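Below: protein 1.
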Amino acid sequence: MKTNCIFCILLISCACFGQIDSTTTTFRSEKPLLSKKSIIPASLMLSGILLSGSNFEKNLQRDLRNKVGNDFSYPIDNYTRFAPIAQLYIADIAGVPSKNHWFDQTKNLIISVVITQAITGAMKNSIFKLRPNEFNADAFPSGHTSHAFANASVLYEEFKESSPLLAYSGYAFATTTGTFRMLNNKHWLSDVLVGAGLGIAVTKLVYHFDYLFSWNPFKKSKDTVLTPTYNGSAVGFYFSKQF
């Protein structure tokens, strides 16, 4: 199992190290082998794989449950994973400058989440790792965590230049999600680490190759306008069409 997972990580990481030239459609190297965009997610996933099933993570999980109590259950992780999405659109409504138009943000978000969840589901269905609470064998990797970090990575990519504090804040919610997956006895440390790395890696790839699916009917159409709005009491959209 570990060998197959390491192989998958190498494939994802290698994809992060290069880019496709839009004029020649050839793969070429863009940055040194261990570029900043790949080393963090690769390290998270590799660390998770190496720790999976170890006495260290078993002892850690036992100690966490002993500290919070075996009856502890606080499902905030069901909601914190969506917090970066709320931050993304609230920032758009507030007029915070972003990297992309809201339509492109949404498109990248959907693609990132769909791919992340597809990979997460495929791994769960092939690895069969028992959860700490022994409810089922869908522990590895954590779907909540991979989803949360994919959302947080989209927020980061959009606002890292204009508002670094906002950009990084999404990772605080994502980390909270992973932490409570462990505190609620739903996942081991390795499940959370691999889920986090996976969500980040997929989103990095989506933004790396986003020019391949750059279609945006709202950005290029001069006679159509659709933008998020906020009037002080309600959130909505402003739509205008010239005929």
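Below: protein 2.
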Amino acid sequence: MPDDMTEKLLAYIFSNMADAVCITARNGEIHYASKSAEKLFGFGESSAGRKIWEVIPFTERNDKLIQLFIDAVKMQRDIHSFADYENNAGKIFRLHISMSYMKGEGGIFVIVAADLTELFRINSAFERYTSPEIARYVLRTPEGEKQGGKLKDVTILMSDLRGFTALSTKLSPGTLITILNHYFEAMTEIIRRYGGTVIEFLGDGIFVVFGAPNDDDHHADHAVSCAVEMQNAMKSVNEWNAQNNYPALEMGIGINSGSAVVGNIGSAQKMKYGCIGETVNLAGRIEAFTVGGQIYISERTKAKITEEIFTSSEQSFMPKGAASPMKIFAVDGIGDVHILHRDYIMKDAANKLEIIFSVMTGKIVDGEKYRGHVVKISDDERYAVIETDAEITAMQNLLIDVGGSLYAKAISAENGHVKICFTSKPKCFSEWVKSLF
């Protein structure tokens, strides 16, 4: 092919490439810039003969890009790297720079700058709408985009805010989202630090898996340690809420370990990375037994933990379809980290106020009414002790009639004395408490 035709062909190719192409002398002086390069870097007639780094705006963000050009020229070698670029209008670009040195004809550099701004934006959005772990799994593994799953040994963590559904009816949508976003931001930072993967946000709850998609031989330890730190972080979450005149939040956490099917679930048109099976369902059941500030773990999880574990109580329940009861344990700490329980004082009620209450099974109220008396209440009005002849067991939910619906969960029951935690309070609650004294 004649030389003039070769030059015309190269000129045609360079001028129609989406990527920015520049050719410089061995000292960095610009000899040629494609139309895309002129548009991206703002090259004009005055750019000819100037060194390429001299026509890049001198801003802090452009330091790396300028240094790449200078280093390549100084060392007369190829360079391939990513760098940010800020143009004269202040617009930010994410570029991949490929700078190739050709020794012939006195030495020239061929520079190709690929604008990956939109790709980075899409990847960033993908990570936010899923999680960084799931995004990496989908984009970087051969099976990432395929339907199907596999059985893995994992630990599931389920968390939920106590009484938030009732609280949300009193808040504006904007306030509700602001409170939740701040809470989720604090929790997801801790979850990522311990290697957990957020599968999804379930209203005000969080569904997390440890041990998938990334393998983790200590997924049970990491899940429980994460849960303890999450509970401790509620102190700072509520301090921020108080500063902004928002209500305090309380969170319960349930954890279970075992085999679960993990992978891409859905259709060819729409898929999500999910985690399903009995292990997941039981984690949700365990979480439902907790009150604010509590962590319950299953016997399966406890057996897998290699660090020293501190538990304050043991309960059992009969899972649906199971042949024997399942033990669960209230966690106070693991290793060197303990839940920062607030100290409270139980005060004797001056008046043994009679109460009428019902027992709840799930969200269904037992038709039978029971009688009891409130004999103690905590100084923060979260806990109380009632005397009753009714056969109440730990983890049962109670509905107390106090002129409004007062919900509580039994924490312990012994010799006719039942310790309860109030989980949802009516407007008349403060007046009712005053009547005890």
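The chain has a mean pLDDT of 84.
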